[in-house]
């Protein structure tokens, strides 16, 4: 792939730029200990993943903090334990505290010198604003689930993206999508005919973590283990 032919990059944020698994586990793990559950962080994330996707599909207009809280309650019920309102709200309000991957801010700064950057995220506006205080990203556009009334892999983000590309003067052929989640991003990217880069943050870990198993056909054009590796490849290409 010729990385110099693109004018814009669209990014998933959580899992790609922000370490959402560490952020979620920071709440699930102490709750599990309190409940007497002997489960690893990986086991808790696996139990949680499908619950969040199910809540997003059934209540697409819900704000992300409410999705997190509802998914936590469902996870608890599936594990035979109750999740109190206090614990549910603790997860719901935790998004701004989720850490950025160490390479994200530097990679974004380097990529912004080459491309227009667009966020395409399953989160609410306030949550992303909190995350961007860590990322310090210079984004030409930010499209959230709150803006489009749905959650990826639904098409709403991508219809809003098409409109935004027109406003930015970028042809669809000049866009490259960059994301970690095969389920949320690479399945719809294939559906939409978008070239994509897989940031495989879980390259050294087994299983799917907090992300559900892909529910449809997916593809990607390039794979990197981190945003830093991707930015290095871009710098080399240019």
UniProtKB/TrEMBL annotation:
Swiss-Prot/TrEMBL keywords: Hydrolase
Transmembrane portions of the chain: none
Pfam families, alphabetized: Hydrolase (PF00702)
GO MF assignments: hydrolase activity
InterPro entries according to UniProt: HAD-like_sf, HAD-SF_hydro_IA, HAD_sf, S-2-haloacid_dehalogenase
NCBIfam families, per database record: HAD-SF-IA-v2
Protein's recorded name: HAD-IA family hydrolase
The organism of origin for this protein: Lentzea indica
Lineage, highest ranks first: Bacteria, Bacillati, Actinomycetota, Actinomycetes, Pseudonocardiales
